[in-house]
Amino acid sequence: MFDFEKFIEDCKEAVVSDRPQQRVKVLMENAFSDPEALQQAMDEVSPEKSVAPLYSDESLTILRVATPANFVSPIHNHLMWAMIGILDGEEKNCIYRRTRDGGVEVEEEVVLTPETGIFTLRADAIHAIETAPGKPMFGLHVYGGNILERSSRSMWDPETMEELPYNYNQLMDFCKTLIAKRESAA
Q1: Most CB atoms within 10 A, among 24, 30, 63, 99?
Q2: Domain 50-185 has CATH 2.60.120.10
């Protein structure tokens, strides 16, 4: 049986170590070595199939993530590193870099699945995600900070590509627009 309380305590110790990302990645790899036990433990902590904070303080956030099928996000940043593990479904991550003229361009595309292992998202990463049509995604994310309270984040308007201050409600409006556009193109 996966012990979620121990996982949280181990992550809390890891984020104050001299190698927090590496230590959390090992903890995530161990957790995902028995995905059924991990899923069962997450269901006990948070039975709803939704995004749910399982733990959060100034140096650590552990999120259960549930993203619906055919979801598309605008480009955004976190301003902290993250470890991402997928239990079911898939998530395509487009990683961007800033250009000299102040814009962003695709640096890399990575498709995450239960088989790809734990993905490390750099603290300076700018990314957008999308899920496959017909298949929701469930996973576990661990962030090296309080992702729920980070106020200096950015997002990019998908129409103008203008960098804007992060605003959750506006981000969700952008998601709805991008999803509708994706569905009408299909």
Answers
A1: 24
A2: yes
